Amino acid sequence: MLDIAVCCLQSAPNRNQPKFRTGVFYFRLESDQVVAKPAAAPDAVFAPERQEQIAQMVVDIGRVRVSDLAVLFGVSPVTIRKDLFVLEGEARLTRTHGGAIAPRGSNRPEPAFEVRERLQRDEKSSIGAAAAQLVVDGDSIVFDASTTALYVARHLKERTWHQLTVVTNSIRIALELAGHPGITVLMLGGRVRAEALSVVGPLGDGVFRRVNVQKAFVGAVGLTMDSGLSDAMEEEAQIKRAMVTAAREVYALVDHTKFGRTASATFCKTDRLDWILTDEAAPPDLVAALRDLGVRVTLVPPGTDG
Known about the structure:
The protein is an alpha/beta fold. It has nine helices and 18 strands. Strands 9-8-7-12-15-17-18 form a seven-stranded parallel beta sheet, with helices on both faces.
C-alpha cells in the first residue's frame, strides 16, 4: 500500500462557483484500486487549523486565491482575507491582489521587524504610552526586542529623567534611548539577530547578576492561560526567560491579536505575570480569566498615546 500526496485542481460542481477549487488530495494505492480523499476535511475547522492548512497549501503549490479558499473551506472571502492577514504577519505568505503567494526568503522564521512594527501600530503606540507611565525615576527596567517595547521607549523620551537604567537586548531601543539625559542604557552581549536587530545567547545573562531589575516589559507572539507568553524563536525566548527571572515584576505588552495564540517557545508562565497591558479589543473571557488569576489587566483605549 502506498500513499501519495498530490496538489490538484477540482472542477466546481455548478456554474455559480469558481471554475476550479484547489486542494490537497491523498491517493492511496490499494492493490489495483486508487482511492482519493482530501488530506484534511475543511468542514467546521477552527481558524488556527484553517490558517495552518492555507499556509501548507502555499508551501505546496506556491500560491492561493481568496475565492478558491472561500469555497474550499465554506467561509466568506472576508474570513479568508483575515486568515491571510494573520499568516502574512507570521511571514508565512505574502498577500497579493485576490490571493497570496509564498514569501520572499520563505525560509525566514518570523516577519521582518519593520513589517511587525506596522501591524496594530495605533494599539501598540497607546499600549506603549500607558506602559511608560508605569516607569518611575530611579527604576532599573528591562526591555526585550519586541516592537511594542520600542513604543514604550519612545514614550519614555517624552519625560524628564534624573536616574533611569534601561537594560535591553534590542539594538533599536538602545539607539532610541542612547544619549537621552538621565537615562543609562545597558546593552546585553551576545550574537546579533539580523531579523529583529536583537542580541541573543547566554552571554547576556551575566548582566542580570549585577543589576537589580524592578520591571521587565516584554512582548510576545502569543498569550494563553495554559502556555503563558510564548515566542516563535527559542533564542529570543531564552533571553526573555532571563529577563523574567531577574525582574521583580513582569509587564506583558500584548495587543488583542496575541490572545489565544501559542508560539513554539514559552518564556513566561501566566502565574508569573503581574500586569498585562493590551487594547480594548482583547477577548473578554480571557481577560476575565487572567484577572481571576490575580493578574492586573489594563485595557488601553485607542488614541491615548498623546
